[in-house]
C-alpha cells in the first residue's frame, strides 16, 4: 500500500500550525466570554493552549467514561512534543482535553454542558441560515432532477458554515464552485432502496441541509432506511451531537413553508423507525477510518451507500496525508467496505481525486485553494 507522510502542525506558518497558534486562542477567548467559567477553568484553558503550542503531549487527567479508550488512542503519542504529532491526532486530542477542562465530565455545574452550544445556536438562528431555509420554498416548484441537484448542492455548501473553520481562516466565504464531481454523479450511486448511512459533520445550517437530503433520499425511495451518524459529544466546535439533531429538527419543524414540511416528514420518519440516529465513540477518535473498529465496519458493510460530510470526515476517510491531489479517490477509499460518497468544502490541506488540469490551474492561481473554503467537491466510489 502507498503511504504518504501525514500532515503535521509543527511547521511555523503551515495550516495546522495556524490552527493551533491563531485559531485556538480566539476560540478560547470566545468560550470564556460565552460562559461564566471560574478561574480554575480559565487557567486550565490557558494551560491547554500552552501545552499544545509549546509542550509535550500529557496524559488525560480526568476519569470520564471514555478515558480508557482515549488513553489507548493516545498511548503512543504521550511525552512527544505536540509539534511532532499529526494534525489529526493533535486537533482531536486538543478538543477532548478542552472538554475535560471545561468540567464536562466532572461533578458540578458544567457537567454535561456542551460549551459550544451558544455558538451553534447563534448559527442556527442567524440571518444566513434563515435565508437558506426560506429558499427551500422553491423546491416544490422544481422538477425532479432540479430538486435532486438543489438538495445535493445545499448539502455540499452547507459545509461551508463551519464555526471552527471560520475562526481560523481569512476566507470571505466565497463559493468558487465545485472542482470535482457533480450532483448527477452523486445520485448515480443509488439503485434499489437500501440502508443509506450519512456521517454528518456540523450542526445548525449544515445539519438542516443534511436533513433535507435525508428527506429526499426517503421521499424518492433511494433509501429504505437512513442511519444518521453524529458525534457522541461536543467536538471541533460545531460538530453535530444527538442533542443537536433534535434541536435542528425542532427548529425546522417549527418553521412555515417547505422547511416546516420537511421537518415534520423527518420527525415522522424517526417515529416510524425509517431514520435512526447513532453516535459511535470512534467518530471522535484521532484516527483514520481505515482503522475503524469491527462493529462500525460491519455497519458500513451493510449499507447500500455511505455519505461522508465535511472536511474532518474527508481527512479521516482518505487519510490526512500529503497525497498527490490527483490520486484517484477510489484508491484512497479502497479500505472502505462499500459504496461511498464524500461531500466536502476544502478547508484543510489534504486533497485527492482531482483532475490534473484542475490542479494545475488551481496551483497557478495565487490562492491557497486547499484551505480557503471557497472550493468544494463531490467524490464517489462503488
Ligand atoms: O467541519 P469540517 O468541515 O469537518 O471542518 C473542520 C475543519 O476545520 C478545521 O478544524 C480548521 O480549519 C480543520 O482542521 C477541519 O478539518
From TrEMBL:
InterPro entries: ARMT-1-like_metal-bd_sf (IPR036075), ARMT1 (IPR039763), ARMT1-like_metal-bd (IPR002791)
GO biological process: DNA damage response
Gene3D superfamilies: Uncharacterised protein PF01937, DUF89, domain 3
The entry's keywords: Hydrolase, Manganese, Metal-binding
Reaction(s) this enzyme catalyzes, per UniProt: beta-D-fructose 6-phosphate = dihydroxyacetone + D-glyceraldehyde 3-phosphate; beta-D-fructose 1-phosphate + H2O = D-fructose + phosphate
Superkingdom, natural source: Bacteria
Cofactor(s) named in the record: Mn(2+)
Short name of one Pfam family: ARMT1-like_dom
Annotated ranges, domain Damage-control phosphatase ARMT1-like metal-binding: 20-359
GO molecular function: metal ion binding; phosphatase activity
Family to which the UniProt record says this protein belongs: Belongs to the damage-control phosphatase family. Sugar phosphate phosphatase III subfamily.
Listed name of the protein: Uncharacterized protein DUF89
Lineage: Bacteria, Bacillati, Actinomycetota, Actinomycetes, Pseudonocardiales
Amino acid at each position: 500500500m502507498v503511504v504518504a507522510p501525514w500532515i503535521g502542525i509543527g511547521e511555523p506558518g503551515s495550516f495546522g500550525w495556524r490552527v493551533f497558534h491563531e485559531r485556538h486562542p480566539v476560540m478560547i477567548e470566545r468560550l470564556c466570554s460565552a460562559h461564566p467559567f471560574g478561574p480554575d477553568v480559565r487557567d486550565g484553558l490557558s494551560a491547554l493552549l500552552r501545552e499544545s503550542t509549546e509542550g509535550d503531549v500529557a496524559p488525560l487527567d480526568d476519569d470520564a467514561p471514555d478515558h480508557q479508550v482515549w488513553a489507548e488512542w493516545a498511548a503512543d503519542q504521550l511525552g512527544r512534543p505536540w509539534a511532532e504529532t499529526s494534525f489529526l491526532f493533535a486537533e482531536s486530542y486538543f478538543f477532548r482535553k478542552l472538554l475535560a477542562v471545561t468540567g464536562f465530565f466532572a461533578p458540578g455545574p458544567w457537567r454535561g454542558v456542551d460549551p459550544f452550544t451558544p455558538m451553534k445556536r447563534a448559527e442556527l438562528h442567524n440571518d444566513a441560515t434563515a435565508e437558506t431555509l426560506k429558499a427551500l420554498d422553491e423546491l416544490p416548484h422544481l422538477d425532479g432532477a432540479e430538486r435532486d441537484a438543489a438538495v445535493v448542492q445545499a448539502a455540499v455548501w452547507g459545509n461551508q458554515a463551519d464555526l471552527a473553520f471560520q475562526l481560523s481562516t481569512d476566507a470571505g466565504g466565497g463559493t468558487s464552485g465545485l472542482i470535482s464531481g457533480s450532483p448527477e454523479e452523486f445520485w448515480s450511486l443509488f439503485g434499489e432502496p437500501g440502508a443509506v448511512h450519512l456521517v454528518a459533520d456540523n450542526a445548525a445550517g449544515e445539519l438542516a441541509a443534511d436533513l433535507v437530503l435525508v428527506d429526499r433520499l426517503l421521499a424518492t425511495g433511494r433509501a429504505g432506511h437512513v442511519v444518521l451518524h453524529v458525534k457522541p459529544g461536543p467536538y471541533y466546535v460545531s460538530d453535530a451531537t444527538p442533542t443537536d439533531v433534535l434541536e435542528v429538527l425542532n427548529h425546522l419543524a417549527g418553521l412555515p413553508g417547505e422547511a416546516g414540511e420537511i421537518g415534520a416528514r423527518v420527525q415522522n420518519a424517526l417515529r416510524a423507525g425509517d431514520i435512526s440516529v447513532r453516535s459511535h465513540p470512534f467518530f471522535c477518535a484521532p484516527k483514520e477510518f481505515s482503522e475503524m473498529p469491527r462493529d462500525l465496519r460491519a455497519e458500513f458493510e451493510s449499507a447500500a451507500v455511505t455519505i461522508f460530510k465535511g472536511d474532518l470526515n474527508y481527512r479521516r476517510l482518505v487519510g490526512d496525508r500529503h497525497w498527490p491531489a490527483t490520486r484517484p479517490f477510489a484508491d484512497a477509499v479502497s479500505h472502505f467496505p462499500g459504496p461511498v460518497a464524500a461531500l466536502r468544502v476544502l478547508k484543510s490541506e489534504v486533497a485527492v481525486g482531482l483532475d490534473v488540469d484542475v490542479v494545475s490551474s488551481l496551483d497557478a492561481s495565487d490562492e491557497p485553494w486547499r484551505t480557503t473554503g471557497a472550493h468544494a467537491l463531490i467524490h464517489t466510489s462503488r
